[in-house]
Amino acid sequence: FENPALEAFQPDLIYLHTSFRNLTALPQLSDSAEQVEAMLEAELAKFTGIWQRLADVYHCPLIQNNFEYPFYRLMGNKDASDVHGAVHYVTRLNLAFAEYAQTHDNFYLCDINYLSADYGLKAWSDPFYWHMYKYALCVPAIPTLAHNVANIIKSIYGKNKKGFVLDLDNTLWGGVIGDDGVDNIELGQETSQGQVYSEFQSYLKAHQQFGVLLNVDSKNDRENALSGLNHPDSLLKPDDFISIQANWDPKDLNFANIAKELNLLPESLVFVDDNPAERAIVTAQLPGVCAPALDRPEHYIYAIDRSGFFEVTSLSKDDLKRNEMYQE
């Protein structure tokens, strides 16, 4: 329908918040496979009609929720595989939304299917909040959803971080290489703790695929730093890093030098260090720099990943080649 007030407002972007409870119908056991298919197509057509209308009138980015899973499974595990299952139906609908996103510019999915699973579906979909307030998720989860939507908006407007600045000892490997020696650091498949650090290195290295820059800021003799990175079990090698600052200067000065070398603002880089004192010094001396709180190494990935520093809304050829260009 016409909305002259919204047209006059000229929104910069539009966010459509939906949930499982917005689905107009769900398959019944008496429905044929053809009827379920028609139901799915009708639901999708309703949404694609909305999206196309918004694109035609407002010409702005559109953020659309997909759907969380239902908070019950009528058929138990079979709900995921049977054509009549609500879980199966939601899975297919989410996939259809994803396929639309792959073929339409300025259309972005807010993945509440993942968010609700990560938060805990039982808590996320607590029926109390729906029946009492018509809230489609529990009140304590609203900041989680808001943060996720904000990450998408931030990325759309080019406000993502550009790279990591990484400590070494007890960050990329367990132990202090200057004290323990390269042969005694925890890294690799021989110990459970070594496996944790290897997984963290693998996580960081994967960011290079979409242009995130890796750098080192370590209070270490440079020779020790390089020997650690050349450890046979290290997945990250010296060539993976654009800048390696390994010395005994204050880390905030090294951080600033790295940013200058990369021709980036310091706040474009994320500081990853297990030492809270170092994090506090760097963030105090370089306003705008983010330094996620790290506790146990098992949680390093979670702390960084949930911060949404590198939310991807588009990928260009330059993004894919950024590390190579910086190396050159």
Helices, strands, pairings?
Blueprint: H1 4-9, E1 14-16, H2 33-58, E2 62-65, H3 86-103, E3 107-110, H4 112-119, H5 121-124, H6 127-133, H7 142-156, E4 163-166, H8 177-180, H9 192-206, E5 213-219, H10 222-229, E6 243-247, H11 251-262, E7 269-272, H12 276-285, H13 300-305, H14 317-327
Any overview of this molecule?
By secondary structure, the chain is an alpha/beta fold. It contains 14 helices and 7 strands. The protein has helices at 4-9, 33-58, 86-103, 112-119, 121-124, 127-133, 142-156, 177-180, 192-206, 222-229, 251-262, 276-285, 300-305, 317-327; strands at 14-16, 62-65, 107-110, 163-166, 213-219, 243-247, 269-272. The model has no long low-confidence stretch (mean pLDDT 96).
Helix content: 40-55%
Give the N-to-C terminal Cα separation: 54 Å
Tell me the radius of gyration: 24 Å
- The pLDDT mean sits at 96
Strand content: 5-15%
* N-to-C SSE string, H for helix and E for strand: HEHEHEHHHHEHHEHEHEHHH
The strands making up the biggest β-sheet line up spatially as 6-5-4-7
Decide which structural class fits the backbone.
alpha/beta
Q: Tell me the number of helical segments per DSSP (H or I, 4 or more residues long).
A: 14
Q: Which parts are unreliable, with pLDDT below 50 for 5 consecutive residues or more?
A: none
| Topology, number of strands | 7
Shape: elongated
Largest sheet: 4 strands, parallel
